[in-house]
Amino acid sequence: WAISHPAQWIAIQALQDTPWQQRNIQQLQQHSTQLLRILESVFPHASISATPLFASVQQDGFSAQKWQHRLAQQGILVRCFPAANRLRFGLADAPGLQRLEAALVSAARHD
Question: How much is the pTM?
Fold first, then answer.
């Protein structure tokens, strides 16, 4: 894939800015921890696996497709793996995590 000159310049600046990298690593870790806390509170009996950038939820008696639909109705897009009955949630910033939590709580009321 071709990478534009402005994108290359930005990447070089980011790679040379160690304090910026450290701040972003810390922020990603905080958001990842918050995402796990939210998912654990809404799905206390689920199997939750995570990486620094996303988390997946799988639970017996849980309809991943139904949850995906409920969240989509509220403007929250998640990836559904129907064969595994699993949902994947991408990492969001603080306001996005607040929106996600509100949408999950709302969707849980219909479960």
Answer: 0.86
Amino acid making up residue 47: S
Name the one residue in this structure whose structure tokens are 């949902």. Answer: 87
Q: pLDDT digit of tens for each residue in the chain (111 aa)?
A: 899 999 999 999 999 999 999 999 999 999 999 999 999 999 999 999 999 899 999 988 889 999 999 999 999 999 999 999 999 999 999 999 999 999 999 999 876
Smallest CA-to-CA distance from 31 within 86, 87, 101, 80 is with 101
- Which tokens belong to 83? 């064969």
Question: What is the rounded distance in angstroms from the CA atom of residue 48 to the CA atom of residue 1?
Answer: 34
Which positions ≥6 away from 62 have C-beta within 8 Å?
A: 43, 46, 85
Structure tokens at 62: 């849980």
Taking every pair of Cα atoms in the chain, the longest distance, rounded to a whole number of angstroms, is: 50
Element spanning 50, H or E: strand 47-50
What is the rounded CA–CA span in Å between residue 61 and residue 102? 22
